[in-house]
Structure formats: structure tokens, C-alpha cells
User: Fold this.
Amino acid sequence: ATHTEKSIGRNVLIALDLSRSMRVKDVKPDRLAQAKVVIYELLDALPNERIGLLGFAGSAHVFAPLTIDHGAVRETVEQVDETWVPLGGSNLSSALRLAITTLKETGQKNNALIILSDGEKHEGALAPVIAEAKKAGVYIFAIGVGTEDGGYVPNPDSSNTNMVDRKGKIVLSRLQPEVLRQLANDTNGRYALAGGGTDIAAMVSLAAKDMDAFEMRGRVRRVAIEFYQWLALPAILFLIVAIIAGTRWRSLKPASLLALAMVASPTAARADATTAAAQALAAGHYPPARDGFRQLAEAARSPEHAARYRLGEGTAAYRAKDFTGACEAFSAALLADDSRVLASAHFGLANSLFQLGWLTLAGAAYPSATHQVPDLASFDALVKARLAQVSKADASADGDTPGVPALEALIINWADSIQHDDSALVHDPDNLDLLHNRQTTLIYLKRLRELVEKEREQTSQSIPQPQPGPDPDNPGDSGEDDQPKPGGQPKPGDKNPPKDPDTQGDKGQQPKGQPGEDPAKNAPPKAGDPQAGDHPAPKPDETPEERARRILGENADLEKGPLRSGRIEYNNPEQDW
Assistant:
């Protein structure tokens, strides 16, 4: 029989800052590690709550949906770091919007959001987001990580191992508690400092009790129902009869064999199914093998056995080039306790994620034959062709280009692949194939980022700058370069050639007006007059200043059409730490 566990709990979403400033070592070992310790304490203190994980830097992403499976959340927290978010910076408002949207989808009146951050906010206004959080019933618990004295932001790629800004100055990051306090106070939440002596887990647990709880369905587990009591009395009676009749035990051998066959039949059936799936895998019949291992995993009573069957399912899916299915199967195998199973699951997941990224880039799986493996020159050609395709793509309705999310997913998949290679090496440090695959992925990922950055610089240089408009005090004046040279000779391309002095009025007399004043300034421009330009006549009740501003707006280059709207995805923020 099966039993569905039910519990009373609440929704708690954890938003973890993954910007580069979280690697500052003003707390030991660094801010990110201390934030993870707080999350582990929260997972232990809130056993009945649905907990999810959101990570943010320049953009925000949900890495673990709301779930009562705290083991899965813990596994994600162990692996997550600053490389999981492809865009640098600290867009706290974006994280808040995603968190509010995620919590509103649960349908509960009030929920808890726990933010672990150093409080640095480089982008986005907070006031509108705070108002939205209050309206949605989201209580924000802000946990500050770091010190107000701060420390230098590390950068392993820099010659001095520290991050420098665009002016060449070393970046110093400090805890910004006022931002976090504002979030907590304006949403009836709490603020605390990690490592400051406050029992954060107890504070959140106590505050969460004031929120509305709801009944949640938990794990479905098998419950053994014992029926042996029903057979105990007949067995005793048969035993007495056997003793009295002097029956020899050898005569019970056929019956014993029959009972053994009845008991062993499920195990034998599973063995046959396992053999069939393994034979299908060896014969190259990958879809049947994948389905067979999946059914065995779903029917397995032991989590360890299920994890081993998931490895077989993932292997079959990978060889069938179903890399998405392989990722799902290998991820399910991570629930095992056996280190060998964990090493194989991480290794398979790393390979599947790499293949998903390569499929996005090249449109085909990564070649397995050694002579077909592309060198860096071929890789550069693939990336440049993909970037050219992105730059030529038409902008969609939301102002993005279709190829940008695909490239962002590629970078995320390869970064995740390296993380899983690292996790596999923890369990199997002597695996040379692991080391080779990790190094290959790292080389490709680094080169990809270099090419994307180079493309971004070329794109920004090719953007046309707005040209200066006409003089507001004299819209018809085209500047000094359009004035005729002395002697009456016009410049090439002059729109207003000098007139013959003999034709300017009657017998050389000046027209009416102030002495020395150009009559063209006192007369409105005529239709077709080059001096009038292409601008329409002044609007009624329009002052000269308003007309000049309108003309400038109509002739500004930046208002004549969209400028590669999707490419802005790769423009790193000015403060990308």
C-alpha cells in the first residue's frame, strides 16, 4: 500500500546574491560561503515549509522551485556560485520582481522572501517593487552578508587578482545595510546581519508562524501491511497434524519449492526486465532501453536501485541524442548515496549539458570521432556565424532578438557542465576522462565569452551617434561652412549660392528694415526654398524655442529606427560586480 504524507506549511523563497562582490573575503571564508551556511540553517529550521532558491546578479533565475524536498534544494545550494548567472552586476529589483511573480503563482495570500546579499544595488528602482511586494503579501527578510569596512572584489583573470572598474581603480565593496533595511521595514519583514550573533533561523521561523499556513501533499511512500497473523493459526494447526501423522519434511519439498517460486517471481521478473533493457542498450536499441530503465526506476522500492536504473536511462537517452531526457535521468540519479553512482551521474549530466550547448551552437551533436573534433579556428567560425545570425535576426515584439536567449542558455549550460565535472571529481578524482572533458569545456566557454565581448565592442562602435541639429535661434542657418567664400565663389555643394549684387534690390539699394539686416531673416521661408529645409511651417501658438526643439527631435538619428535591439543583452553593466 502507499501513504501520502501531508503537512501544514508555508512558502519560503530564498534569493541568493551571486554577484562577484559575494566573493569578497571581509568575512571568512567569503560572503557567498557564509550565505550558504545561513541557508543550511534555514533548511534545518523549516522542515515543513516549501522552500525554493533564486539566484541573481545582473539578471535573476529560479534554480530550485518551491518544494518540500529540502535535499534537492541543499544539493543545488552546494553547487551554485557566481558563474551560474551569465550577466554580471547587481540588479536587486529584477530579483524582487521574479520572486514576487513566483510567489504569486502559488495562490497563497502571504509568503516569505529571504534575501541574502551585501546590499549593493547598481540597477533598478526599488520603490515600485516594494509597493508590489506589499500588495502581493510578500514579507521580505533581508540578511546582510559582509562588513561595512568591506574588501576588494577578487578577479582571478586580473594581473593583480582584484577587480578594477573602467577607470582602472580597484573595486572596494562594502555592505550596504540601508538598502536591506528598507526592504525589510517597508514589507513588515525583518533585517539581520549574518554572523552578527542573531539566530536568523529562529527569527525567520518565529515570524513565519504569523503567516497563513496551508496543507501540502508530501512524499508518497510505500507502507508494508502485515498479514502474517491470518496464517499463524492455520500454520500451527498444520504443524500439529504433521507431528501427529509422522509426516516427513521431505514430502513438503515440492510445496516449499512452489512457495519459493511464488515469492521470488517479482524479483525474477525484475531481473528479466533489467536483462532486456541492458541487452537493448548493448544492441544499440536506445529508445527501448531508455524506456525499460525508466520503468524499472519507477517500480524500484529502494532509492539506491532506482538511482542505478536512472543511470541506465540517462546513458540510453544520451546515446539516442536525447540530451534533455539524459539531463533529467542523470539529475534523478543524484539522489543516490553511493559515491560511484554520484560520480557517474555528475559525469553524465556534465556531458549532456555540454551537448545541449553544442547543439545550440552548431545544430548537431559534438562529434565523437577524434578526426572530426573541431579546433579553435573551426570553433571561432561557428561562433561568428551564430553571432552574425543573431545580429541579422528581426527584433521580436518585446525588443529582443530570437538568438539571444539561445546563446545565454548555451553559456549557462556550459557553466553548469563545468560545475558537475567538479562535483564528479570530488567522488572520482583519478578519472582522466573527467579532467579532459572539463578542460575542453572550459576552453570553449572562455573563448566563447571572448568572442561575444569582441562582438559587443564592435557593435557599440558601429552605432551611429546623434548629429547636431540646426541653430535654435536661426533654424534656416546651416552653419559657417555653408556661408559663401569671399569673392562670391560658392563652396562645392552649397545650397544657397551668393546672389549677384546687381540683383539685390533696385539700383543696389537695401530693402526696408534695419540697416545691414538680412531680409531673409524677416521674411518667412517660401515653399521649395532651400534655406527653408525640409521642416514644416511653424505650428499655431508655437514659440521659436518649441519649434527648434521639435526640429531637433525630428532629425535626431536615434529616433529614426531601432538600433539592433537584441544586442543589448551582451552589453555588460558599468558595474558588473
